[in-house]
Amino acid sequence: MAQRLALQRLLSLPTRGTLASHGRAFGTSAGRRSTFNVQDGSDFQDRVVNSPKPVVVDFHAQWCGPCKILGPRLEKLVAKLEGKVLMAKVDIDDHTDLAIEYEVSAVPTVLAMKNGDVVDKFVGIKDEDQLEAFLKKLIGA
Asked: Where is the Thioredoxin domain (predicted)?
């Protein structure tokens, strides 16, 4: 019941343009803008390789249990950084070509990319402290 009320309140909020005209932004929108699902190779090139911001690339699969734990944990920490880093989610079953190109042999695999280059990487699940350190290293904090 509480979830339904929260959803109704959310859906009844004014549109983004109206919020912007009042000088406010909806709190969760920053997280949505900084995390996206890669649609295809061209999208990956445009939004990841050519990104002016550092990008964390989460190679995952629907059937992967650890991915279901890591993904939301990583998304939360990326959202906290308020746009300093972006997060691209790549489903290896949908984008096998990208997985092969970036030598992904197990999931979850997370790449840190800057200026189109892989600068760091890990495979497997990490706790929040380890993820924070990974992200801080990527943004140079």
From this structure: 24-140
